[in-house]
Amino acid sequence: MEWKPEEEGLRQILTLLKESQSPDTATQRAVQQKLEELNKYPDFNNYLIYVLTKLVSEEEPTRSLSGLILKNNVKSHYNSFLPEVAEFIKRECLSAIGDPSPLIRATVGIIITTIASKGEITSWPELLPLLCQMLDSQDYNVCEGAFGALQKICEDTAELLDSDALNRPLNVMIPKFLQFFRHSSPKIRCHAIACVNFFIMSRTQALMLHIDAFIENLFFLASDEDPDVRKNVCHALVLLLEVRLDRLTPHLPNIIEYMLLRTQDAEEAVALEACEFWLSLADQSICREVLGPRLPALLPVLVRGMRYSEMDVILLRGDRDDDADEEEPDRDADIRPRFHKPRSHTIKHNVGGGDSNMSGGGDSDDEDDGGDTDSSLSDWNLRKCSAAGLDVLANVFGADLLPVLFPILKETLFHDDWVIKESGILALGAVADGCMVGMVPHLPDLVPYLVCCLSERKALVRSITCWTLSRYSHWIVSQSHDLYLRPVMTELLKRVLDNNKRVQEAACSAFATLEEEACTELVPYLGHILQTLVFAFGRYQHKNLLILYDAIGTLADSVGHHLNKPEYIGLLMPPLITKWNVLKDEDKDLFPLLECLSSVATALQSGFLPYCEPVFRRCVSLIEQTLNQNIANTQSPEQFDAPDKDFMIVALDLLSGLAEGLDGHINHLVLNSNLMQLLYQCMQDPMPEVHPVRQSSFALLGDLTKACFQHVHPYIPEFLPILGMNLNPEIISVCNNATWAIGEISIKLGPETSKYIPLVLNHLVDIINRPNTPKTLLENTAITIGRLGYVCPHDVAPVLQQFVRQWCTSLRNIRDNEEKDSAFRGICQMIQVNPGGVVADFMFFCDAVASWSHPKEDLKEMFTKILHGFKNQVGEENWRQFTDQFPMQLSARLSAMCGI
Q1: pTM (2 d.p.)
Q2: Contact in structure between 78 and 33 (CB atoms under 8 Å)
Q3: Region Disordered: which residues (predicted)?
């Protein structure tokens, strides 16, 4: 019996569909509720498919909406549909795939794909053969509808289509798609390329067999009159560049010419797809060779692509001279989610020794797209892609790029049209990273020019200038303060108080980058800086306040204890504490404020004492609330939501800041709280990858160990086994902090550490010998092994030979400090217990000793004793042969330090 709808049921559903298009939210809610109720009727979905495919008298939007509701039902409840309902829906979909209306065809295609992606593609064996057969239909609508459905299926289930589970249908489908590349309809050509493109990245065998025919067809379509076809051709070539460069190489000169043309396509979507090609090509080793000769043609195209379009300028109100917008309220939608970076224990390096902290850009450098921070433009667009292209090419070509770029910069930077001038300033910032060395001779002229641009009339010029200056902050800081740092800083701080919100944001981010570069060089200007930042507190709206917190936290990190002066504290703390008191415990704005306070507490040290008690208590309370909510959610998930663990992570990190800054002064606060019990729970958080709760817990444990060990001591038997279980280098950040905490505990625990060494030593030796272990983890591991050897030399010395060489090479670049001191005392004690363990690697030990600038006297004596002991052991002649292999500098340092 064929299913037929009842008139009354049909009328009800049509009424609902019409009501659901009402703009009134109350009406929409009522409709939602009725739809939920109707889902209880088994044949409700039959009505929905019937309206979509059979009720041609109804308006298209109503029919399509019926299909979309059905699609949601398929997604949520398909497995509980009655078999006859499922069959009816499948049959109706296939019969309506050639509906005359493009909207209805597309909706039917979406339902087919949704059914297929529910794992049904295996139990609907006739689907793919039928769709492929429909491609040959003389009826355009049937062919287009089938292709639309196939494109969605290829996108959603590409892997499954290439598996044995379906007898590899691609062996038939791909040659079939290739036949349609030259179809008379652009829409069909477009579907055909799009379908094949889904299989490039996975190097699907069926496609690799036809790769030459595929490339030949792409070339045939290169100048197709349809923009969507051109866009798909460009996309295919970008993907092939990554996957089958060997097949493209003979054609590369022609492809480069083609992509140059397409990057200037009148359709922005095509130009953007083509522009991606330069990003991909920069990753290939042949880039310099094939692209070098075409830079004079390419760079003007990229810089032109960086201009704001007329539409952008309207959206950003860039054409208004009166650009004061700070009175307009921020919309929540404009505020991007922020991500907290949990604490990680790192070690300071000797300058020039490995990667010192002079990274040139700092953390606020994640906007290498020319600082478009407005969410209406935060999507990837031609401007950002062109700027990113110039950035990566600057890194490939270095100074060789500049002779081509300079004439373009001359023309754009001084242009009367502000849109062109703005694109030149963006280009100047984009090449900063790759061309720094070649730019240096020109910066004495360019930096003052940029400082002038900070007072341009157009807000968009002021904001991009902030970003570009920040890209050169490393150079600015290293020059004469009077000539560069002071004027840059003065003008940037004026822009921090600009009337335009976009300029405020750009200036605040740029200033944070400058702070990271300048560090204590900013101390003479602290009063002026703080007055400006605190004044901004009173003016900034929600979105920029979050960036201001970051600038204040970065300032505290950069100048450290120099902030601890009554007049600075008097300026800075009242507005921060006011915000702190206003924000509720569940407000996400607490994150950036807590991060900021964490840096401030660490910097102010004892200066933070008047504020520490309420801050400490609230952090403990946030941790406790999060843990309790987590327990409630685990026990009855339908009743309680899972907590946002970021509250707990940020609170743990602020407590670390307090422990580090206040040192022993935190003692009575810990004593009168349940923090240690809470910390024990946090250390066992089950999800280290997703939520770095453990990472932050171990950082706090290490800081509390240093500040008030008497409260940690009773928990050592519980804590150390957990630390030992977290020495897994696959989860680097957790492993790093656990390793550091073990070292701190061993120093305080002394010889008592002996019973815990079997829990941790083998893991640490494995980590230090692992290839490709990140530098920070290697250094922390070496220090902790050294510290274990310092407190328990007899427990660690027997395995000295297994780690001594890696140990020495890991620590040769780090600065003299307490951690290095205790670790080297440990290695010396282990060598005294087991001198044979170091014999084979003695040269590495000598090199590590020479890395000290000013060791304490008694440590210097230990070094001297070991070196002389070794010399006496091997005899004068052997010693001379041994030291003859030393580089000059090493011999000189050792003889100066140890008289040998």
Answers
A1: 0.78
A2: no
A3: 344-375
